[in-house]
């Protein structure tokens, strides 16, 4: 049988193309067939592994940074608290030493009510000077945060009041402060000196 030369050539070309396609690795095929290995695949695996390692290190660094920031914030708060406690302690110590001076000045002023009209103007001027000094001293204590403890008319509180006298009376409810004998003071929540008071009891 005679064969057309052109047809024979097409048959030979078709066989060669099939052999060529069979020789192509599935990794090189554009249809994404399964890979069986190769430099590109190894590089991709290595890159992915490196990315995972970098991500893990990044997460660890972020965690360490967060912990360092928390430690610093705790340190800052502790320093501020200690500074505030030190300040309050120093102010309380100074105030405790100044309060007796204020008490004595107040006693001198209380004596003014017993001064006879015949007393000299010089003495009255002296008492006016004492009054000015007493007010200045109390102004300094107030500026430092030292506050007097409410007493007369208040319910007796053993945390801030010290009962030195009791009196049975119908004028006040029982356990009510009738009189302040010595003023008490506090600095914030810190008690500097309790108020010495007279307390009413049931008659």
Describe the structure.
There is one protein chain. The chain is α+β, with helices and mostly antiparallel strands and 203 residues long. It is built from 3 helices and 6 strands; from the N terminus they run αααββββββ. It has helices spanning 5-23, 39-110, 121-143; strands spanning 146-148, 161-168, 177-182, 185-187, 190-193, 195-201. The strands form 2 sheets. It has a 3-stranded antiparallel beta sheet. Strands 2-6-3 form a 3-stranded mixed beta sheet, with no helix packed on it. The chain starts with a helix and ends with a strand. The relative contact order is 0.08. Residues 5-35 have low confidence and may be disordered.
Short précis:
This protein has 3 helices and 6 strands; from the N terminus they run αααββββββ. With 203 residues, the chain is an alpha+beta fold.
């Amino acid at each position: 049988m005679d064969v057309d030369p052109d047809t024979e050539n097409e048959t030979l070309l078709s066989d060669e193309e099939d052999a060529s396609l069979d020789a192509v690795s599935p990794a090189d095929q554009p249809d994404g067939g399964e890979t069986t290995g190769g430099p590109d695949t190894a590089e991709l695996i290595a890159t992915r592994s490196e990315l995972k390692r970098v991500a893990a290190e990044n997460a660890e660094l972020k965690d360490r940074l967060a912990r360092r920031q928390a430690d610093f914030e705790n340190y800052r708060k502790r320093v501020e608290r200690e500074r505030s406690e030190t300040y309050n302690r120093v102010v309380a110590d100074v105030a405790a030493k100044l309060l007796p001076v204020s008490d004595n000045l107040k006693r001198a002023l209380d004596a003014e009510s017993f001064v006879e009209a015949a007393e000299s103007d010089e003495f009255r001027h002296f008492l006016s000077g004492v009054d000015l000094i007493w007010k200045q001293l109390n102004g300094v204590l107030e500026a430092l945060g030292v506050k007097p403890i409410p007493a007369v008319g208040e319910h007796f509180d053993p945390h801030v009041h010290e009962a030195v006298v009791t009196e049975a009376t119908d004028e006040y409810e029982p356990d009510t402060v009738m009189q302040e004998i010595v003023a008490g003071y506090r600095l914030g929540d810190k008690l500097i000196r309790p108020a010495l008071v007279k307390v009413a009891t049931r008659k």
